[in-house]
Amino acid sequence: MLENYFPILLFILVGIAIGVLPIVLGWLIAPNRPDAEKLSPYECGFEAFEDARMKFDVRYYLIAILFILFDLEIAFLFPWATIFKEIVNTEAVKWFGFAEMMVFIAILVVGYIYAWVKGALEWE
Amino acid sequence: MEFKTVVFYFLSAILVYAALRVITARNPVHAALHLVLSFFSAGGVWALLQAEFLAISIVLVYVGAVMVLFLFVVMMLDINIDRIREGFWNYLPLGAVVGLLMVVEMGAILGSQYLGAAEAQVPQTAAGVSNVKELGRLLFTEYVYPFELASVILLVALIAAIVLTHRGAKKTKYTDPAKQVFVKAADRIRVLQMPAEKQD
Amino acid sequence: MMDMLQQFIQGVFGPAWPVVWNLLKIVAVVAPLLLGVAYLTYFERKVIAYMHVRIGPNRVGPLGLIQPIADGLKLLLKEIIVPSGADKWVYLIAPGLAIAPALAAWAVVPFADGLGVANIDASLLYIMAIASMGVYGIILAGWASNSKYAFLGAMRSAAQMVSYEISMGFALVTVLMVSNSLNLTEIVRAQDHGIFAGMGLTFLSWNWLPLLPMFIVYLVSGVAETNRAPFDVVEGESEIVAGHMVEYSGMAFALFFLAEYANMILIAALTSLLFLGGWLSPVGFLPDGFFWLAAKMSFVLFLFLWFRATFPRYRFDQIMRLGWKVFIPVSLVWFTVVGVWMMSPLNIWK
User: What class of enzyme is it (chain B) (predicted)?
Assistant: First the structure.
């Protein structure tokens, strides 16, 4: 199995190299003549006031948390989905294998409906 | 030295360095980024142990989802580093005790490995067997109840997240263009017939 | 003759031969990919120009064909500006973090039966995991620039990308259910038989027809995931100028550009492999081959450009509503439908 992962390791390294090299090249070749005006953050010509890293709406956190939960759910679905055909073709475990995932999904649908009713998915 | 060992030490070195930087970096965003790096290299170490599914899942779940939330939090709560450092010496004894306890616990677990078994047993998967399929088989036969419990835990987390962070629908005043289109003059204006007042 | 040559080359490199061989394979994937990215930008400008009844780039070289190379050279010669309030290292790493996942995901993409850099069992899972890292480049660019537009763009993009990743995940899971494997090669192979394939009409046996709602969800989520129009509120020039890229210049900007287009090509490749039968020929009497995959990818990429020329930009609340309140229910319902379908005697994926 591991020998199949070796090209992937190389590929990731190549990807990082392609991410770094152009910047180094640009640094070497391109001119570098900074001045205060050029380096000031873009604000449609105004003088920038206060720090740009401000506090943000709590809804963004909520979206991120909901995403984690659904992402975990999908991570659980993956192994089940890969063997689902075998479950279907094995008479003995057919209904059991199907039902347990439906229970899993049903519990999460309850959570999804709760989020919807509470207005957590609203964005106006 | 085998090539596998070289890769292991390479990944472990990155892992240890990144983990150290997580607790020593002064900027919280840098700390979070080093945590991402350490998760990624941990995934690599797991892949070396042939735990294919777990290795990719840690990247998918921790790097792809959990750390995004972490970054959101540390980026947007403008943390004043000086204020956090104020209480450092007060909290040091308590922190040291907790840290020491954790070291002892981890030592007990890792130590028993070395004292008891000669070498950690790495289950060798046969060439044609898919890691994920085997995991699926086990998860959905032997570990059904923990699996269903996991969904309940996810549900609890979801409800908790909403209760803690959701402040109810915001009272923003806005017009719905879809409704605006269907407004007729008769809905808005009432034409009255006023009798002329007498002038005297 | 070939054997001797091979032995000679292996002898020259000795134990480093596997590294060299794999690097050659990687270059054989990455070089055409980067060239494809360059010409996709040209193609985009031409296609949209003709849709607008304009001519598009036609000055540099015949038909403007050297335009992308001229653009690249120009960017190479431009100063890389690091704004005064920026976090220098994070600012410079961010473009790399955007392009590295977009390229690394290609490691497991098969181009024809058995033709690819790596062939691992969990290739689909790998792609999903690597693709989920693409969001870092954008968030970090927005945060490190210390500019309000960049920060707003980064927050929007993070929220948008994670929202559409869920419906994408459900679409992938449904494809897995009918193909019984996480391996992309196996997923394509599972599409070459069926009732219609028996009649010689293979293209009706591909996944897009029985999984039509998932196909649409996946394609539209792919557009949203790559921040393309009409989901480009992240970089909408009339609202937040260029979002996370506003402070970037020169090669640092070029990398974001490359990453966006490399991701588009990746989504096109995945859509073709998962739903459109990959390298399989649409009808029984023509041979399979890489040619078909390229044709399908070009078709999907053309859709991307067409969308941009046709649809006005969505509002951010509409994007979030579409992701959370339309796509997730639709994909959950179709997931269940496929489950019941496979349990019933009408199962077509025996």
Answer: translocase
